[in-house]
Specification:
globular; 270 residues; Rossmann fold; alpha/beta
């Protein structure tokens, strides 16, 4: 389907009718996050969806009762998100890439699969020259272009929108830069790890979160429920990442000292 259709109502209808498995996955995600948030005793008030793409996770978070700040750098995807949530006062769409400082970055566009767009040169190179990663349909990612986008930090988002109870990060290899733009712990956060290419960066993310929250606890999943029966320390999570032969993990961090509605932030009075 032509890229220009993505910001239209026709695309929303097309997506619903043509991809019923996507809707099933979204229903599963809603159930997963409801259970996860319930385990924290208090439903989240505010969620940052970093790398929102077409809004599947955003919709799940809204169904969980959270207000959502959905941050997406790809112009067509951000346009689609604005159309999708134009009548929803509980969702704010921010057309930016999140990084460690404000400025301008190059966003590399992956043909067909916009969810894999990235501002990470290493991720771009891994698509073109590195170990073969696959798109959702099993094909090899192909960079078809690039566009300049504005960047923002998590701290800046907190200054503008408030302290989130959960931050979801899906930024295709740029995770450590995103976390370097955060100066305080939040109650719950997750980020993706594509292995083995980004093993060192994943370890850096764990160490960064451990610095923000000394009693940090971790768990992870691949594509369904959390795989560990209990939450483990940063040291244990680091060891698991270094030793695993998995090629993908979504790693969850929680800071026991920071409950939903509480915070450890002091960013301009937040």
């Amino acid at each position: 389907m032509a890229g220009w259709l993505r910001g239209t109502g026709a695309f929303a209808l097309y997506r619903t009718l043509a991809f019923p498995e996507r809707r099933r996955h979204q229903r599963f995600e809603t159930i997963f996050f409801r259970r996860l948030f319930a385990s924290m005793n208090v439903p989240p008030r505010l969620v940052f969806d970093i790398g929102a793409n077409a809004g599947d996770k955003t919709e799940a978070f809204r169904k969980c009762g959270a207000r959502v700040v959905a941050v997406e750098p790809t112009p067509q995807s951000a346009q689609y998100m604005r159309m999708l949530y134009r009548a929803d006062g509980g969702t704010i769409v921010v057309e930016r890439a999140v990084s460690d400082s404000p400025g301008i970055a190059t966003l590399y566009i992956v043909a067909i699969f916009g969810a894999m767009n990235t501002i990470s040169p290493k991720c771009r190179d891994s698509f073109e020259n590195g170990p073969v990663r696959r798109t959702a349909d099993g094909s090899v990612p192909r960079i078809e272009g690039q566009v300049q986008v504005q960047t923002i930090t998590l701290d800046s988002l907190i200054q503008e929108h408030g302290i989130p109870d959960y931050i979801k990060i899906d930024v295709e290899g740029h995770e450590i830069s995103v976390l370097n733009g955060l100066s305080c712990a939040v109650a719950l956060l997750s980020f993706e790890a594509n292995l083995p290419e980004f093993r060192a960066e994943t370890v850096s993310c764990i160490e960064r979160l451990g610095t923000l929250c000394p009693d940090a606890a971790f768990n992870f999943r691949e594509h369904a429920d959390l795989l560990l029966p209990g939450w483990i320390s940063a040291l244990e999570m680091r060891r698991d990442v270094l030793e695993t032969d998995r090629t993908y993990m979504e790693i969850f961090f929680r800071c026991p000292a920071v409950g939903p509605g509480l915070n450890s932030c002091s960013i301009n009075g937040q």
